[in-house]
Batch of 3 targets.
Target 1
Amino acid sequence: MDTVRIAVIGAGVIGLSTAVCISQLVPRCSVTVISDQFTPNTTSNVAAGMLIPHTYPDTPVPTQKQWFTETFRHLSAIAESAEAADAGVHLVSGLKECGGLLLTRRIEDLWELQPSFDIVVNCSGLGSRQLVGDSMISPVRGQVLQAQAPWVKHFIRDGSGLTYVYPGTSYVTLGGTRHKGDWNLSPDAELSREIFSRCCALEPSLRRASNIKEEVGLRPSRPEVRLQKEMLARGGQRLPVVHNYGHGSGGVSVHWGSALEATRLVMEWIHTLRTPATVSKL
Ligand SMILES: Cc1cc2nc3c(=O)[nH]c(=O)nc-3n(C[C@H](O)[C@H](O)[C@H](O)COP(=O)(O)OP(=O)(O)OC[C@H]3O[C@@H](n4cnc5c(N)ncnc54)[C@H](O)[C@@H]3O)c2cc1C
Ligand SMILES: *[C@@H]1O[C@H](CO)[C@@H](O)[C@H](O)[C@H]1NC(C)=O
Ligand SMILES: *[C@@H]1O[C@H](CO)[C@@H](O)[C@H](O)[C@H]1NC(C)=O
């Protein structure tokens, strides 16, 4: 096998950063991102983009710390704004510079990608519930407002983190809500009014904000981030998969650390594929 063909499913912050990381670190590979939605239509675009350590109850704490630290160092090194919308744009251009391809397509079954690809990386977020039949993943609905209020330069957050005002490069994010198990992607006008009044209580000048847009995102919540290898087998065929999904409320905060780990797992699969004796044993 000369060039290893890698498909990454999903174009949120997790899929794009994983694709960029693979194309930077893995020699002799081609990377194709396949997704039914691209920026601005992903959950990652709704995120305020704050680096806040979230906790995944079933992921070991040292692992979470490592992902967060690696992400923090990565973002500090490129001294970039952590705003999710922009991060998405930068990741897409970074991927194209590395020769990566983007395809708009909905995947119903991973086997569609065989034999066109040698390794598949599953970064489908909440899509994994259908795609992988993973019932441990569920939505935590979040509604926010994105408004023009360029005079707001500092973030404000209440003690519980439910109400927040996060200035970004092109708009201020006002939040928020968390509703477990709610799949509704349509904004609720009553909730928007309530968010607005909670935020104005923290920062009264927001009453003057203009161009207020309502956005909804479904956090791909799971007790444990699924970051692992799996060899799918059907008939006599095999398809090596790396899963990287279930980042819940903290995907932006750990995206680079989990992309690095997914890349290590891809390298392990490549090693296996290049060692014919081990393939026949799997
Ligand atoms: C209101 C709100 C605020 C947030 N604030 C923060 C914050 O401040 N800091 C932070 O760290 N996190 C925050 N988050 C969480 C963060 O947004 C998520 O953890 C992160 O976006 C998850 O990224 P992802 O790439 O896994 O998922 P997504 O962005 O949902 O991407 C999944 C991708 O997979 C594609 N896909 C799915 N199924 C299929 C299929 N079958 N075929 C093809 N493509 C498929 C989708 O089209 C999409 O491109 C927030 C979330 C919300 C909702
Ligand atoms: C985002 O979704 C809207 C509404 O479905 C669509 O018109 C637009 O083309 C989408 N954008 C991208 C980049 O896919
Ligand atoms: C994700 O992995 C599961 C196997 O656990 C598979 O059934 C599903 O099709 C995969 N989805 C994608 C998009 O890779």
Target 2
Amino acid sequence: MTTRNEQLFESAKKHIPGGVNSPVRAFGSVGGTPCFFTKGEGAYVWDADGKKYIDYVGSWGPLILGHAHPKVIDAVIDTAKNGMSFGAPTEAEVTIADVLCEMLPSLEQVRLVSSGTEATMSAIRLARGFTGRDKLIKFEGCYHGHADSLLVKAGSGLLTFGNPSSAGVPAAVAADTIVLPYNDVAALEALFAEQGSEIAAIIVEPIAGNMNMVQPSAQFVAAMRNLTMQHGAVLIYDEVMTGFRVGLQCTQGLHGVTPDLTCLGKVVGGGMPLAAFGGRADIMGYLAPLGPVYQAGTLSGNPVAVAAGLATLAEIRQDGFFAKLSAQTAKLVAGLNELGKDHGLCAQSVGGMFGVYFAEVVPTSFADVMASDRTRFNAFFHAMLDQGIYLAPSAFEAGFVSAAHSDADIDATLAAAKIALSRC
Ligand SMILES: *Cc1c(COP(=O)(O)O)cnc(C)c1O
């Protein structure tokens, strides 16, 4: 018998390429039929067949308060009643810019955009305009949205000049992107020694969350800051995922680093299309209309999206919010490590973000992540899904706990994991 999810997926494929509007949603790497969701509330989502799940995806990170948080929903509805968009300045944009600069000391100025992709793309253009240089360093396994110059992965070897990893990206564009291994200080030093005067910027996920979850070493973090400073390059922290997810001052607060530019998204919009980039005022001053670097958007700073963002930020700034979220996430991870120790599974978390790996030790590089057991992950994923636990449908994505996940939800998840591990 076909389920409603299966029927919808079949229908979707008629007029939507692959049936989805973003590739990972198609369940391509885990197999099976994607869930079409009809409703979310707190820690739960319901699919088109009426099945309820405890959700650890949270729309890929934004929903730190859980689904349909009443204060966020009210802010959206109240704001929408006064009009959806003006394409002109509004007071709420001023407020959120003030709030972001107050929360994150590295931000002197900030500009709003509508997606993480726009934030990183614009930050890179700005870094190139500011430095007058073209070359960009990114790291293997880091995802920074789908702008052309960022769709480049590493080949083999210590230092690889970019080859596009997507069709349709001109080789000339990719050629200015240099890909280095994450956490490899020697490779970074060697590159700067050779080409330091040509490097416009480093862009990095300061805790990587798009190759499952990989944390940087203290030496790597320090090397990125010191080398960019010495060579006049711009250090761009892509905190689209980690921003207000790992802590109130994002990764930069945890690591004590002041990047030159920061990209934000996901949590900052509370589930609406809102993202931002900002940082040093002397660099931000290169943006139009003040300076020569063009950047714009019809819906940038959209009032309804800003309202959702402000309501979300107000909640996470409440006393004890992150301590509680971090403890709840750590509880899940401790339980998984306990269950997993005889099954070749391990896990880690920072703030409300976690990684689960079918590996003996927590990975510290893209190569480590690639060496983890993907076949077992896929079996685990489906065994969890069957039991009503919705994990990211890929071994290469981080997971998220929200403030709505209760002790009972964590306990139920661990009980399901115990059964799932016995099956895979
Ligand atoms: C999600 C993400 C992006 C892209 O954001 P979109 O809103 O999907 O365009 C960029 N960088 C990082 C680190 C991300 O996690």
Target 3
Amino acid sequence: MEGFGKYYFKIILFMLLILHVYVPQTLALQINFYSKTCPNAETIVRQIVQQRFAADKSVAAALLRMHFHDCFVRGCDASILIDTTSNNQAEKDAGANGTVREYELIDQIKTALERACPQTVSCADIIALATRDAVALSGGTRYNIPTGRVDGLISRSSEVNLPGPTFTVAQARQAFSNRGLNLNDMVVLLGAHTIGVAHCNFFQDRVTNFQGTGSPDPTMSPSLASTLRTLCGSNQNNPSTFLDQNTSFVFDNEFYNQIRKNRGILQIDQELAVDSLSSSTVANLAANNNLFRQSFANAMIKMGNIQATSGEIRINCRRKN
Ligand code: HEM
Ligand SMILES: *[C@@H]1O[C@H](CO)[C@@H](O)[C@H](O)[C@H]1NC(C)=O
Ligand SMILES: CC(=O)N[C@H]1CO[C@H](CO)[C@@H](O)[C@@H]1O
């Protein structure tokens, strides 16, 4: 019996070695991963993002959302960039996708990087680096983002399973914890809604007929609800409004102050300020911009670590090699 136990012990030890030593060594991301293979990679990304930002500040919000959607489906593996083909409907064509944009910017960066260092820098790292630069340009903290991600081989719209804007805090928390992110990470990451917009289809019910009550959402400021009713009732096609109604292009903690004033646009945003699971974290972040900036950088590094298990360095970000 004793020898038998020893045998199992060895097998378990071997499995632990595989899990804890072998896998992380092959996949661990590192700061300046490209310092030898493509020393200018991060500079090239930054310059192109800077140019684009100078022309249109909204690029920052677009990249942040792209990074989030990428990391939450199959890990941060650029699966969101793959184009649909005749025999595969890709992630970008899933319902939640609709308004993810700036795919052309990623193409532009990829073209420049392929010229400098062919088939070296992954599309997944381009998204992570470009997002980091865009946050800094908008006033957020510039953080060192580890690189060395690989590009995934699979992108299926049927696998897109993102948290929705009508989720409760508890439901959203579950969606984040499924990806290794805790409640605090979630509250901090939703601070990304300090920049960017939401279209009426994502919040219209809150300003007209909330959950079938025939009245607006009682947690929304009546004056904001009235403004948004006018906006969404206009004859434009699915108009949009800023997620942070005050400092809409500045990457700061004002989003948390807005939701504390009942001026959240999405239901999940407003719930963060109201729900006892998150309200005290929201209060702390609302009171301290430095706390938010540092926490956001840390949470982005953590989200950026949601990894794909295998992949390649794509030559064209829109299709596997
Ligand atoms: C429970 C989690 C989340 C939900 C339900 C959610 C939902 C949404 C929705 C519905 C929109 C509006 C899209 C549109 O109308 O075009 C939006 C926009 C946005 N989201 Fe989130 N989001 C979540 C978490 C995050 C996270 C973690 C990030 C990044 C770290 C993020 C970044 C953004 C940005 C920057 C925008 C503005 C996009 C633009 O202006 O183009 N979101 N989000
Ligand atoms: C807008 O934000 C600034 C701080 O950036 C704050 O002082 C001001 O009270 C806010 N205004 C509103 C209407 O929320
Ligand atoms: C812009 C875009 O690609 N939108 C697509 C999002 O996904 C839905 C559902 O699959 C498509 O109908 C849209 O065309």
